[in-house]
Design brief:
The protein is α/β, with parallel strands linked by helices. The protein has one domain: UDP-N-acetylmuramoyl-L-alanine:D-glutamate ligase, CATH 3.40.1190.20. The protein is 35% helix and 25% strand. The protein has eleven helices and 13 strands. The protein has helices at 41-51, 66-77, 119-124, 126-131, 143-155, 172-176, 185-192, 197-206, 245-258, 263-277, 290-300; strands spanning 4-8, 12-18, 33-39, 55-63, 80-88, 93-99, 105-110, 134-137, 159-163, 180-184, 211-215, 221-225, 228-232. Helix 2 links the parallel strand 4 (55-63) and strand 5 (80-88). The termini are close together.
Length: 315
């Protein structure tokens, strides 16, 4: 069966400037290359899941401008269903991204039309959440919108994955409505304070999620469930740009979970997707195909996954 995923999230245009290093406060740097691409964590994760074989519905907002038209058309071209992407009077959201020679980035986001995505958009998309196997959402939309999406998905009996990006405070009820929480190390520390990765994962899980995944770049991910914590191996690649890695990971994790795969195996598959996304420049243009992820997964799969993992994940 084809996994079905509803993404409630942001849509942005990305302006990416490559520089020798990241700028210091008050400093002006000359760039080596300027690119414009389609982005936003919601749209990126929707495209990531669609490229990996899922049926994907996008719920969000764009501006009544050329950027908005381009974003919607780009989603269609990538196989994402866009009937619940609505238009409002605000300018489309934009992200301003610096990427240095090591692939590290610095990002500023103007939400624009995303700020007009409200609870009514979620209610209007209830039929989509009913059809989906899983809700995937992030925190670039207004918090009441995200929290209502989690509530509606719970009412419809669906699995819920929240990417804690950017890290923002959630209500106690929202924390308890999350099946799998995904954060990188920085986002985890901003949410619960300093500490070792295991401590961060424990503190995040005590807030209510069934499981917590902290992504660690080439070191893989740290998975915490009610049975304890463990690191899931990563893969070293030649990094060009880390911009889309987290979104590739989240889209892949959603596809694997919606396909009914065990959580640890799903995290390993998502690690492969995240690593592959760093080998190319950009966000959506860097997202890997199903064939690429399966090939890398087969290379990495350990003895405990033999038999179930060799043929890849998903439908």
């Amino acid at each position: 069966m084809i996994p079905k995923i509803a993404v409630v999230g942001s849509l942005h245009v990305d302006l990416l400037l490559r520089t020798e290093r990241l700028p210091h406060p008050g400093e002006t740097l000359l760039g080596k290359e300027l690119r414009m691409g389609m982005g936003g964590k919601g749209a990126n994760q929707a495209v990531a899941a669609a490229r990996l074989g899922a049926k994907v519905w996008m719920v969000g907002r764009v501006g009544r401008d050329e950027y908005g038209k381009k974003m919607v058309e780009n989603l269609r071209r990538n196989g994402v269903e866009v009937s619940h992407v609505r238009v409002n009077g605000r300018p489309s959201g934009m992200a301003f991204i610096f990427v240095d020679r090591r692939g590290e980035n610095l990002i500023g986001v103007y939400p624009g039309a995303d700020e007009g995505c409200g609870v009514e958009d979620v209610e209007g998309a209830r039929s989509v959440l009913r059809k989906a196997d899983l809700l995937l959402t992030q925190l670039e939309l207004p918090l009441p919108t995200v929290e209502r999406a989690l509530e509606v998905a719970a009412e419809e009996g669906k699995k819920k994955v929240l990417n804690l990006a950017p890290s923002r405070p959630l209500s106690p009820g929202a924390w308890k409505g999350i099946d799998v929480l995904v954060a990188n190390e920085g986002e985890a520390r901003r949410a619960v304070g300093r500490g070792r990765v295991r401590d961060l994962a424990e503190r995040l899980r005590r807030k209510g999620p069934e499981a917590v995944v902290i992504t660690l770049g080439e070191r893989g991910s740290y998975l915490m469930t009610g049975e304890g914590g463990r690191r899931v191996e990563g893969v070293k690649v030649r990094v060009k740009d880390t911009t889309g890695a987290g979104d590739a990971f989240c889209g892949a994790l959603a596809v694997a979970l919606a396909s009914g795969r065990p959580l640890e195996e799903a995290v390993l598959w998502a690690n492969c997707a995240g690593a592959l996304a760093t080998t190319r420049v950009g966000a959506q243009e860097a997202l890997p195909s199903r064939e690429e992820v399966d090939r890398l997964f087969r290379r990495l799969v350990s003895e405990k996954f033999k038999g179930g993992g060799k043929e890849g994940l998903g439908p």
